[in-house]
Amino acid sequence: MRFGEHAQQYRTHAHVQREIAAWCGEWVEPDCRQLSALELGAGTGLFTEILAAKGFQQLTATDLSEQMVAEGNRCVPAARWEQRDAWAPLPEGYDRLYACSLLQWAVDPERVLTHWRRALPSGGRALVAIFVQGSLQEFATASGRFFPVPMRSEAEWLACFRGAGFEVLRHEVCQRVQQHESAIAALRSLHNIGAVANRKLSTAELRTMLTGAEQAHGNGEGFPLTWVTLKAELVVN
Ligand SMILES: C[S@@+](CC[C@H](N)C(=O)[O-])C[C@H]1O[C@@H](n2cnc3c(N)ncnc32)[C@H](O)[C@@H]1O
């Protein structure tokens, strides 16, 4: 994905991600003064802002992209910002892990979640929001090469959490449909936040995908783009 290249404009265009951060934030405990937290894939800090308001004893926000970390630090200076790969083993010492709109891009999420579970103490929790099957289906059905990794279903994610050794405390799915002027405008909205694969489709493949998507979903008045999100709270027993 190309998030880092779009760090400076991410906040202006990440409307769905902002809504998801607020929705996920509903499950953060109200009083976190005794807790330390690590956020992964924090981007420019849309979810970090919500965490910062909870008064954590220690709040560390991280992202793989240097540009995102710089922008996050500028936007949410209340957190400590670091560059970190969320797919690699994590340091111990945190009571809570958070990841909003990140985990769907992991090639081997069960392995990643196992790292996360091992970093937490007994009773430690992770709260995640993930795009699941059905998201961006308007493009995914028009091109089998649209996603760099397969979009997993809710059931696959629940199996993945449990396979990594977490207990699922609660989970919920919600669907949002954004309206765009056209398939091209919808695709541009994804480019604006960097939510596009590094391995680009050829011009011919892109044209075929856009034409197919417009014919299947465009209705003369606009073009819908569907986002299906799972949020889940996980605990280490
Ligand atoms: C869709 S953005 C979400 C950002 C933020 N959590 C939000 O809700 O707005 C995904 C973020 O994950 C970061 N990312 C992608 N792969 C990562 C990895 N392996 N480790 C850490 N961050 C990663 C990207 O740089 C990007 O900032």
From TrEMBL:
Source taxonomy: Bacteria, Pseudomonadati, Planctomycetota, Planctomycetia, Pirellulales
Name of the featured protein: Biotin biosynthesis protein BioC
SUPFAM superfamilies the UniProt entry points to: S-adenosyl-L-methionine-dependent methyltransferases
Residues annotated as transmembrane: none
A Pfam family it matches: Methyltransf_23
Organism: Posidoniimonas polymericola
Alphabetical list of InterPro entries matching this protein: SAM-dependent_MTases_sf
